[in-house]
Structure formats: structure tokens, C-alpha cells
Hints:
The chain is α/β, with parallel strands linked by helices. The protein has helices at residues 2-7, 12-23, 38-48, 88-104, 131-138, 141-150, 189-198, 204-221, 229-239, 245-248, 262-273, 279-286, 290-298, 318-326, and strands at residues 27-31, 53-54, 76-79, 107-110, 115-118, 124-129, 152-155, 249-251, 258-260, 304-307, 313-316. Strand 4 (107-110) and strand 5 (115-118) form a beta hairpin.
Amino acid sequence: MRQVERTHKRLGNLVAFALTASVARKCMMVVAPAGTGKTVASKIVMGLLPQSKVFDSVTRSSMAAIKELFQDYSGLLVVDDMGKVDTLYSRIATATTFAELCYSGFIEKHTISSHVSISGFIGSAWLGIQPIILGQVIASGEWEAVIMDKTIRYYHLYRPLAPNRTLPSVYIGEPLALDDVGKVKTGGEGWEELAEMMTCQWSDARLMEHLTDLVRAVAAWDGRPEVERQDWVLLAELLRPCSIEAEVVTKLSFEADRLLNSNLLAMLVEIASWEHLTVARIARDYKLNDQAIFQALRRMPDYFLIEAIGPKTIGWTPKVVKILEKAGVPRRAPQKAVEPNLSGQSGG
């Protein structure tokens, strides 16, 4: 999205991903810390998809009063910040409801207190979520049962170099409807690369469904009824940030116990964002003092270097470079170039 990049550098890929996922009728979770441009990106996307609707939260029970909004709906549903949802139950319920609605196209819930019957839904959803909230959702049973396989997690790794809340002027035209793009065959070079990258997010069955829908959506935005090789290449570029999940999410047992390494994710954002990263910059972004930063880094020796030669310095290992390269972030390594103040005072 060169039009977006002209005024909002580092948001173009996120906007292009979201537009693709919207046409593919997916529920996307846009994962990033506060202050990385999620809200601006969601407003850009909503401006390009005029049927969009914004919510703070939606559970299946609450749908009873507004079910007409979702009946035969084909637009984008947006929860800009899952952190604003008041309870953990409501956060999980909102994610579960939107994931199931986008995947199945219907909701049927009948209890003593409420009756909800929605059908014909062919829309999509954007859930903006900070890592601390994602960690809570990942730890739930609903993640394993519903949310994981029926959503796409996009890890936005960049802080804005020059924040700009003015929305850009963007025109992209109308895409074809997803149903107007022919079916695609799986297998082959383009497919294998994507399948290997996205297996960290979905089961094999969902992998096939999601990737074929997404590549057809790429062709739809280009106004073509048939998928071509270039569509697989572009989709691979758009989805590269999703590969971060393989590194930051750990599963401890067969059916549950997933953990998000939010410290690693936070540092990946910092390394991707700042060409000359300093402890003072990290302290400013996360409101930590130097000692807290070094304590967190020492718990991740496979990823970060702590050297006690003269002033203490930090750096990252080649493993971090490989993670970021896979996610589409070119970065030199390892860096060893900071001199923190270890007095306990904040570097920011």
C-alpha cells in the first residue's frame, strides 16, 4: 500500500493484510503494544470499507438486542482495542463470538433468558489486541477450542517514527466478491512456503481453508477471477509477520497450557522499530527502569546478550535476526551498543 506508506510509514503492510483478510471473510487479531498505530490503521481500513461497524465488545448474549445488524451482513466488524472490554470473560466471549460468526456465518443461541438466531453473515472482523490481553486469551480453554483455529493473528512489529493521526487519502477501487474468484489447487512452491509458515497458527484442515480463501482475496482485489502465481507471492509477504507466533507462544501440554512470551514480543517490536536501540529507548517505550529491563533480558539468554565488560551492554543473538527476517524485518545482528545506567533510575 504505497499510498499509505507515503504518509504513515510502516502501516502499509498491515492495511493491505487487513483488506485482504476482510475480503476473505476472516476474523483477524491485530497484535501490538499501545502506541504502534493499530487505531490509525483500523480507521484507514474502515474508510476503505464503508460498511464497517465499530463495537467495544459483543458477546452472544448481547447480540439478542442487535441481531438485525449482523443478519446478512457483509462488512467489517471492528473492536479497536480489546483492552477496553471490561472483564476477561467479555474479552474471551467477544473473541469467540466474532471468530465463530466469521467462520460459520451464523449464530444460534437459545437459553431461558435470550434467543439469538443470526444467519447469512459473510463479513469479517478486526480485533485490536495488546500482548498483555492476548496472553490472557491464549491461556483460556476457548483459545484451544475455538479462537486459535478460526482467527488470524497478525503481529504488527513497528512503532511509528513520526506519529501522524491525520488519515491518508487512499483510493483502491472495489474488489471482486470472493465467490467470483475460482477455486485454487493446493500444493506446489507457493503453497508449501505459506503452509510451512502458517502451521504455527492453524491445524492442517483450517490451514487449507484459510490460505485458499486469502489467496483468492488477493486476486479479488486485483479484479481477477483466477488466482495467479503472483498472488501466492504477495500473500506470503503479507503474512510474514504472522510467523512470529511460532516463537512467542509456547504450549506445555496437549490440550491447554499455552503461554505468551510477552517480554520477547516486546523486544522484537523494539528491535524492529529502532535502528539504534538503546536501553533509554526501551525504558521510555515500556516505562521500566534499567534494572527491570536487564532482569527481563537475562531470563532470555537464547535471544539476548548481557555482557559485563566495562559498562554493561546488551545485544541480540543471530536467532533473533532469523526470527525477524522470517517476519519480513531485515535487521543486522548482533548489536552490542548500549551503556545503561544501573542505578535503578529510568532511562526514559
